[in-house]
Design goal:
heterodimer, A: three-stranded mixed beta sheet, 62% helix, B: mainly alpha, Four Helix Bundle (Hemerythrin (Met), subunit A), three-stranded mixed beta sheet, 7 helices, globular
Chain lengths: 162, 162
Amino acid sequence: MDRQRINDFADGGQKLLRAVDGLTRDNLLWQPPAALEIGRWSIQQVALHLMDDELIWTSRMKLVIAEDKPKILNYDESKFASKLFSEEQDAHVAAEILDLNRRQLSIILRQLPDEAFARTGDHSDIGIFTLEQAINWTAEHLDHHIYYIAMKRQKLGKPMKE
Amino acid sequence: MDRNLIDEYEHGGEILARAIDGLLQADLLAAPPAGAADIGSWTIQQIIIHLMDADLVWTARMKSIIAEDHPQILGYDESKFAARLFYDLQDAQQAVRIFDLNRKMFARVLRKLSDSAFARTGTHNERGEITLDAAVQAMVQHVPHHVNFIRLKRDKLGNPMR
């Protein structure tokens, strides 16, 4: 396990904080038309999805670390996005939760010996996965969505700052 | 569904913040004296991190109960979490902040639900069928249960709760 990746993971929440910084509620709730091909979710929905997904994946990582080959059940992210009133929530607070939660989990990750990153969980849809894969997927997932937020911000005339 | 319960749920993080206010790191990590079984064997720090972990797990479960139909819920081993997730090295203040923000965010979801939604169920592999109402109640009660032990530990430390 490349330890620098843990540092990058720990600091990743800052990307989401920057991605929603300076946006009004109207900006956050703007639903991009399909024709734009920049993703159908509003930035608010993306931010809430990221928070929900990160909280679930960090709990899964804790299971993989603490238990022996734990079973892990999938969840329906589309139903979460459509039924959990994401438009009523606060995207900036969601980003703060994601950021703090990553920092807290990173305290654990930094303590682990190299072999711990090969520990596994058994996911109902994905199958066997390692802790290292879970960290990588979670990091890539955030970057994937930040890319789409950046495109939506361009269309809103509020490009992301470097 | 008694809507006051949602207010209690929402403010649980403030109770936790007060419970550790004025404690030094040494206080948080002080092992209760041997033979003082009545005040519990965990350190205050372990209790705080346990409460954060449990709340994050249960929030995800409640989201599944709201968004999905009769989801399956798998138990986790809280003793293994406490023993293997470096609870003593985590950041108790940050844990309380995560706990507080997460509850305040999820309380918004709970407030939007109709009364009938609180009868929605999930099936826990150890506890059996559980309603959303029962899950919220369990989380509300989880805080004073542990804060009572924190109070007893603080009395023993000579640093009583205000």
